[in-house]
Fold this sequence. Notes:
Elements: H1 2-28, H2 35-53, H3 65-91, H4 95-126, H5 133-149, H6 153-162, H7 167-190, H8 196-222, E1 231-235, H9 240-250, E2 256-261, E3 264-269, H10 272-291, E4 297-298, E5 303-306, E6 311-314, E7 317-320, E8 330-335, H11 343-350, E9 354-359, E10 364-370, E11 373-377, H12 388-400, H13 405-424
Parallel strand pairs: 8-9
Antiparallel strand pairs: 1-3, 2-3, 2-6, 4-7, 5-6, 7-8, 9-10, 10-11
Helix pairs in contact: 1-3, 1-4, 2-3, 3-4, 4-5, 4-6, 4-7, 5-8, 7-8, 7-9, 10-12, 10-13, 12-13
Amino acid sequence: MQVIEEQRKLIFYSNELESFREEIERSFAKLNLKEQEKAEKTKLFTELKTQSLLIQNINSQNIPIEYLVIVYTQCTVIAINILKITEILKQIGKKEASKKIRRRCSLLAIEIIISVVQLISKVSETIKIEINNSKVETIEKQIIFLDKINNIKIIKESLRIQGFTNIDRYLSAVIGLNQQVLKAKNEVEKSEGFNNDQRDETLKIINQFKSQIKYLIKNSLDIFRKKDNDKKIIIDNVQWEEYENIIETIGEVSWCRISYLDGVLEFVTISERHEIINRYIAELINDYFCAKEIGYIPVGSTTYKIRKDKKGKEADSAYKFTEARKYPDFAVEVNFSSGGVASLEIFKDFQTKEVWMWDGKDNLKFYILKGSEYIESNTSLNLTNVTPGIIRKYVQLVEKDKLKIYKYKKEFINEVAANIIESSS
């Protein structure tokens, strides 16, 4: 049943790709091409015809599921070559025709990539870890498949322009594949049947495979990075082990924050403005602590986790006041987008005493942990007499005149010092 369903999808994909090819041929009709353009077009169309021959047997019965993976990757290669041909159309002035085909073909290519990643994951599930060459060969084939499907740079610009709503499905598929690879790695490491050479060689291949998955995840997140707006991607029903595997696989990425709560995995790609506001607030905090000679440890956006409660979080900026503390005492969050993981729920379990939250409407709120709940406060717990209004004022001043940050930082310290003298007199 699985093979028949995949065959149906492949027939649809191949028919769509063939229609794109025919549409491009019509667009090229009656055009006077230069010799170099004509040669490039002929070469690409010849490649397309050769590649199309490889997917003509998908109606046959009893096709091995591994062969379907090869056909899927071939469809991806065809889609990429069609997109290359649309670039020629664009260069010779057929911009509208190029844009129309490019948009539709880009989205179809990503749908094919989702399908092939999901199918590779299913193939992986059916393969038991055994000490023989066929296992190694299978993993090597999967590395080749991934190497082909991660070649989507040519699609990237179209996705930025046109948008893509299925990123959560794509990431879910890749996360599932990542889980299979890590299971395989654990099995190989635990197995007593491998000799040292076999184990080293197999782990080398699996690690190559893992690095390809890392590229796929980072590349898909990078597609959605914006200069002025954050992009939030939420995936439900994710196991804690999968969250830990993702953290292990891609590491801490400066332009992405990852959170986990109650089976919900959240990726937030950080915009330039998000990071600017975060850095300005952090500089004001650092200057205050230095001016008041308060000891502190800046831990930035370090990942903190509580395994038993299955909660994990990367703040924008965080601070500890003693080296013995496992979790941050004080955190700052910039959150331009609504919905998603409830940050305060996680910080509460970290016993983070103070959290500052800057939202998409440029409002800043201070939250102080009182017992088991956060209470909104008009003053800071850790920065005496500092209010949300003061921080907001100086951040906005710097945003208007970025190169005078040195001036506003001095003014901030002077105002805070005056407030302290006023309140004590």
